[in-house]
Amino acid sequence: MTAVAGDRTALLVIRAWVESNGEPHLRARITHTLDLGQRKETSRLASTREEIADAVSEWLDSFSVTER
Q1: pTM of the model
Q2: Does residue 65 contact residue 29 with C-beta atoms inside 8 Å?
Q3: What is the pLDDT of residue 38?
Q4: Residues ≥6 apart with Cβ < 8 Å to 52
């Protein structure tokens, strides 16, 4: 896929790990930006699969409605 002038590019990175202090617990840091050109990043933490999935859905919804 080739970028076209005027296209926006967003980025979402999920770093996931399992903490085991007794029982294993899923943890994730989700870092994202809606426009790579602005280099403004936001991070949030999640501790369940549902929270991670919600963060991805919210990011996609924000990206699809955000205009440049």
Answers
A1: 0.77
A2: no
A3: 81
A4: 14, 16, 28, 30, 46
